[in-house]
Design a protein that fits this description.
Length: 393
């Protein structure tokens, strides 16, 4: 079901899981889960919620946590307790709060780390990739992650997901009752809607050896991101176009990325106009890279949402993306769409965005309108609506 904003009650107290955004666990490189957790932490207070950030300490070492207060048990120990102790035993959230603090009304888990708690639990499950496409998940972690996500889906009082597409996956793969799922689209912060100063942008581009107008991709290097076909499509473009426009791939190494990394390095050594940036940890620099792009190309084979699309829309960059999974829903007509299995269609879309002024202008304007609809402020308000729905039962 869709969620619409309501007037938030100022005294609603929510424990928010920020484990995925803890610096000790991310090395300064937030993935989609980390961006989601951090964004809710920043925007939920503006929607009338008193937020208490809480984290599962790595290996139980609470001294390493910087963002949230430590939950009383590490996640492995809490999970073990779930398995061995009676169903009436719950993890106490109160012991993680400052002394004398009022109890929480609800706990929001932003990833698969769900255990029984002494308050209602809302869980955000972003996708079911390890089950729906096991070939895209590490065999070592796949069984554990599948089990944890299925358990999370059963324990949560309610589930939030980022797209209507993901509802279908959660129902089919985890057996979640569709009536217990709400769609809350992700978004961008207000800072993304303002163009960065030209001087700052140009300094960042010069730092990385980039020239304005490049093709840009942002995402972790892993098979489902389909970067190999993006490279194939770029190499089919006319030499004059490749000479004028670099292909910039921004993303850290992911599972099964060894061959892709080797290919990226080989292309650079051969003098192809391909740039791979894997050490980008500054949010401002990422905004600068979007702002300097001529077109954003997102050929992913599977997304539960696809936040980079919205970032590109907000930055005023024309977008071309896959016509699969959640991406048409997120783009809502604001991007050129292509079959991600067709190198020819990817190349045609790339060419259109930089050579057809009418198409380019239409995509930029439509993308800007879409970005104004998909903000973290709106996501926070809609998330609070879910909280009230759960607590009113």
């Amino acid at each position: 079901m869709d969620v619409f904003s309501v007037n938030a009650v100022p005294d609603l107290r929510v424990g928010l899981s920020v484990t995925t955004a803890e610096p000790v666990l991310t090395n300064g490189r937030l993935d989609g889960l980390g961006v989601y957790s951090r964004s809710l932490l920043r925007h939920l207070p503006q929607a009338g919620v008193e937020v208490q950030p809480l984290s599962f300490a790595p290996h139980g070492d609470t001294s390493k946590l910087k963002l949230g207060r430590a939950l009383p048990l590490s996640f492995p120990l809490a999970t073990l307790g779930d398995l061995m102790l009676p169903a009436s035993v719950h993890l106490s959230t109160q012991t993680a709060l400052p002394k004398g603090a009022a109890p929480l009304d609800l706990f929001h888990a932003t990833d698969y780390r769900i255990v029984r708690m002494d308050v209602p639990v809302v869980a955000t499950l972003h996708d079911a990739v390890p089950v729906s496409h096991p070939e895209w998940a590490s065999p070592k972690a796949r069984k554990l992650k599948n089990w944890l996500q299925a358990k999370a889906a059963r324990k949560a009082a309610h589930v939030i997901t980022g797209s209507h597409f993901s509802i279908r996956e959660l129902v089919e793969c985890f057996g979640v009752d569709e009536r217990r799922i709400s769609v809350v689209h992700h978004g961008v912060g207000d800072d993304w809607l303002d163009a960065p100063p030209d001087a700052e942008r140009d300094i960042t581009l010069a730092l990385h050896g980039l020239r304005h107008g490049y093709f840009l991709f942002v995402g972790t290097l892993q098979p489902r991101k389909n970067i190999e076909r993006l490279l194939d499509a770029y190499l089919t473009l006319p030499p004059v176009l490749r000479s004028a426009r670099q292909l910039v791939v921004v993303g850290q190494r992911g599972w099964r990325s060894e061959e892709l990394v080797k290919r990226l390095k080989d292309l650079q050594q051969r003098g192809e106009n391909v740039v791979w940036l894997d050490q980008l940890t500054d949010d401002r620099h990422l905004r600068h890279l979007y702002a300097g792009a001529g077109a954003f190309i997102f050929p992913s084979l599977h997304e539960g949402f696809g936040l980079p699309l919205v970032e590109a829309f907000a930055a005023g960059v024309p977008v071309a993306c896959s016509n699969t999974t959640s991406l048409p829903e997120v783009a809502d007509g604001a991007a050129l769409e292509f079959d991600p299995l067709s190198t020819g269609e990817i190349a045609t879309a790339m060419t259109a965005l930089v050579r057809d002024d009418a198409v380019r202008a239409r995509c930029i304007a439509a993308g800007r309108r879409r970005a104004l609809e998909l903000t973290w402020d709106a996501a926070a308000r809609n998330t609070v609506a879910v909280y009230h729905q759960v607590l009113s039962r």
